[in-house]
């Protein structure tokens, strides 16, 4: 996607305070290192009903301590608004979590299509060695609730254990 109407947002390690569980490793990391960028097209004003937004996320490979690079993760402000993700390149894990903190983890592989229920928080994790690239399509009035994840986190984390990705409860 390119051209004037396409917006872009870049998240560096410094922008992701409190997201990774190893805070000491996060403090030691380069705050300017890019973790991911999103380019999206918003044909209507955000918050208006009836439109669809389309975006691509490019999530770099890397870790903070033993935790793989991931997106911030969010619920939609409007819990009735669902979303599609579709993997284009790379290998990852899509974490979803409901209000009771039940979680689901699905492999993200090129060609994979994922329907994210409106009540589920969602976060993508890059468990590979190359950028994880995925499309997203969501309703223009979905909105974002980042605060719940900022405050309580996800119930599970993707950590490298013995050279392989492992899904572990957040408290362990
Ligand atoms: O709409 C989405 O869910 C995605 O486009 C995400 O916003 C994107 O992957 C970045 O993640 P986050 O918004 O959690 O920082
Ligand atoms: Mn979303």
Describe the structure in your own words.
This protein is mostly beta strands. It is built from two helices and 13 strands, in the order βαββββββββββαββ. The strands form four sheets. It has a six-stranded antiparallel sheet, with no helix packed on it. The chain is globular, with a radius of gyration of 15 Å. Bound molecules: 5-phosphoarabinonic acid and manganese (II) ion (MN). The site of 5-phosphoarabinonic acid has 12 residues, from β3, β10 and β11.
Helix content, binned percent: under 10%
Shape field: globular
The hetero compounds bound to this protein are: 5-phosphoarabinonic acid, manganese (II) ion
User: What Rg is obtained from the alpha carbons, in whole angstroms?
Assistant: 15 Å
Q: How are the strands ordered across the major sheet? A: 1-2-3-11-6-9
Please state the average pLDDT score: 96
- The H-and-E topology, N to C, reads as EHEEEEEEEEEEHEE
What is the helix tally? 2
């Amino acid at each position: 996607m390119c051209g004037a109407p396409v917006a872009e947002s870049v998240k560096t390690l410094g922008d992701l305070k409190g997201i990774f569980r190893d805070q000491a490793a996060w403090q030691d990391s380069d705050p300017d290192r890019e973790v991911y960028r999103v380019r999206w097209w918003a044909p209507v004003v955000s918050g208006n009903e009836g439109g669809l937004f389309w975006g691509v996320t490019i999530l770099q490979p890397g870790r903070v301590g033993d935790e793989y690079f991931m997106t911030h993760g969010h619920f939609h402000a409007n819990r009735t608004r669902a979303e599609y993700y579709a993997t284009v390149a790379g290998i990852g894990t899509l974490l979803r979590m409901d209000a009771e903190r039940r979680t689901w983890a699905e492999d993200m592989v090129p060609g994979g299509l994922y329907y994210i229920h409106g009540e589920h928080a969602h976060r993508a994790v890059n468990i590979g060695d190359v950028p994880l690239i995925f499309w997203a399509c969501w309703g223009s009035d979905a909105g974002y609730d980042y605060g719940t994840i900022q405050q309580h986190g996800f119930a599970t984390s993707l950590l490298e254990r013995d050279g392989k990705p492992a899904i572990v409860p957040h408290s362990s």
